[in-house]
Amino acid sequence: MSYHAPQRSSPPIPAGSVTRLVSVGLLAGLTGGALAGMLFAAVLTTAARPTVPQPLASWLLQAGFAAILAGIMGAWAGAQTGIVLGLLLIICRHRCGRLLLLAPLFGLAAGLLHGSLASIDQVPGIRPAGIAGNIASMLFYLAVQLSAALSASWWLDGSSWSSGTAASQPPLQLPEFGVCERSLDDDNQ
Amino acid sequence: MKQPSCPRFRSSTRRLNRIEQLEPRCMMAAEIQLAEAGQADNSTSLQDPATSSEATSSTDLVAAEVIQQPRDWRIDSALIAAVVQGSPRPASRTETPSTFPRGSRSPSTRPYSMPIGLFPDGSVRTIHPDIDPAVLELLQQGGRAPIPSTTHRPGVGYGAPTNTVAGIDPRLRLLVDMTVNWGHGSGPLIHSRHAITIQPDSHSYGAQQIFQWLNNFKQFSHRNIARATLVNAGPLDPPALAGHRYVIFHPRTLPDIAANDAIYGMLNTAQRMANPPDVAVRLFSNPEEGFVMGVTLGNHMLVGARRWTVTELASGELRVETDAWVRCNGELNRIAMQYGGQHMMSVIWRRYLANIGNASTQHGGSWRWTANRITVHPDLRKNPFRVLATRMSWVPQLLPEAPDYLAP
Question: DSSP assignment of B199-252, as one string?
């Protein structure tokens, strides 16, 4: 009597769910990154005193322009993190809760990676006047990626957050696969 | 209406009704300044009696007008240049820096109509404006060249022939009048240097070909985040414009850029809030020393000069490098330079050098990066390239041209 190993065939992932997870990750990362980038630029431009007295409107224009450029860079970097988090959710499926707890670490790692790339001029970075070297770029990408990762984890699975605000929004419905729940005995029956 | 007694004013009033909207504002400003300063030079008067009588005695009055208009424009251009150079320079240390870039607007890269002309066989055909001078000469020797007085660009200069200033490419006509923007810089001086070293073999291109590429920017636009359009005078254009060479750069925005360069497209789109879609650079080349230099014009987002060099090293390798000393034009561009602008500038020139490296070694050989550096010099005040750029920036004089096609 020969033994046939059970085939643990995974049901196909519904295409709509994948698209939805990735889209939500993208949007969440993009929003979080852009907001963090704009905030970072606003703080920097406020801290940097203009060397020459300028009209308020001119200074506001400059600060707004800096916020827009930083927001674009933050959105671009954050969107990548959001997409990766969405894909990780799909791959890890039911371990999403534990994965999302690691989101801050993931954001920090992504920030360090992007900051390092910016320091060797491989991705756009920021070099405000008065701050030497690539410190600003590193801090910028750390803030952006951390914000993007937290934002993405919030949107992807709000129930994993302990605060009560997440409960008001229904968590995203992950695809019901059930593959991990099936045991070898079930297959043999 | 009482006409001004000065012949220059009479001439201007007549011209303003006829010439298109290109120069009137500049002409009036220059003339008013000249009148106020009392520096109107009678030697440059438009009403030269000999010339006037010659023109009016001609049977073809329309053609005489066509000649007179570019001549007026040419003289006014010289006057404008004289006024600009002679006007007192504003004290930059006490002046409030401008928010937006200053300087005249660059012409668009939009192509204009091709020249058409009547050929001796009776046909009317288009002629490529960059036709090889040797080919044109051979056609002329064989009696098959287009008749010069009929060669014109449709819609340009009321059908003025291409060998008159009124009939040249309007982009070139605008670029000739643009001035360098040295006085509009704000923020610290920035030095950018990128270089590659090419290890050639018997099949790779040599220094002469690379210099040609540097001269005509042929390798610039491929997979780059901006594109370059060379505008220069061709063999159909008047000899007075020979030597005028310009490059118009157009940063690629979102619909016009590759998908993997989306971030650069977004940043380029954002910088369009402060800058024009096209910026111009005047080119000078020195074949003996193997370098080409470009000086920023008008409302270019940068103020300064860039040099592209190809040199043969003692080891037989070729070094292609570009370095620039620039400042920003306006406070918004100073901000943009801090928020991603340095990287964008670096990407543009790295890709250009990479294109040259790939093109020169496509049949053999190899290339590698030698330098990639952008440094900010907040304590430096004087642009190290300014002396060299000023020495190089000889702009050929627009001398009076003879109405040769009216001669019997």
Answer: E--TTS--HHHHHHHHHHTTTSSTT-SEEEEEEE--TTS-GGGTT-EEEEEEE-
pLDDT digits (tens, 9 = 90+) for A30-57: 999 999 999 999 998 888 766 667 788 8
Q: Answer whether B344 sits within 8 Å of A124, measured CB to CB.
A: yes
Residues spanned by the domain of A136:
69-160
**Residue A129 token pair:** 């006047």
ipTM: 0.76
On chain A, the residues whose CB falls within 8 A of the CB of B270 are 65, 68-69, 72
How far is the C-alpha of A11 from the C-alpha of B173, rounded, in Å?
Answer: 68
Structural domains counted in chain B: 3
CB contact under 8 Å between A41 and B339, yes or no, is: yes
Asked whether residue A148 is domain-assigned, the answer is yes
- Whether B248 and B346 map to the same domain: the answer is yes
Helix then strand count (H, E) for chain B reads 11, 10
> How close does chain A come to B52, measured CA to CA in Å?
52
Best residue in A26, A40, A56, A65 to probe B by mutation, most B CBs within 10 Å?
A65
Angle at which helices B61-86 and B24-37 cross, to 10°: 60
User: Does residue B402 lie in a domain region?
Assistant: no
Which chain B residues have a beta carbon less than 8 Å from that of A72?
Answer: 263, 266-267, 270, 340
Q: State whether B336 and A65 contact (CB < 8 Å).
A: yes
- Do B280 and B157 belong together in one domain? no
* pLDDT tens sequence across B244-282: 899 999 999 988 899 999 999 999 999 999 999 999 999
Domain membership flag for residue A36 = no
Nearest residue in B to A68, CA atom: B270
Does any domain span residue B103? Answer: no
Whether the CB-CB separation of B353 and B195 falls below 8 Å is answered with yes
Q: Which residues of A touch B274 (CB under 8 A)?
A: 65
Query: Are B101 and B300 a contacting pair, CB within 8 Å?
Result: yes
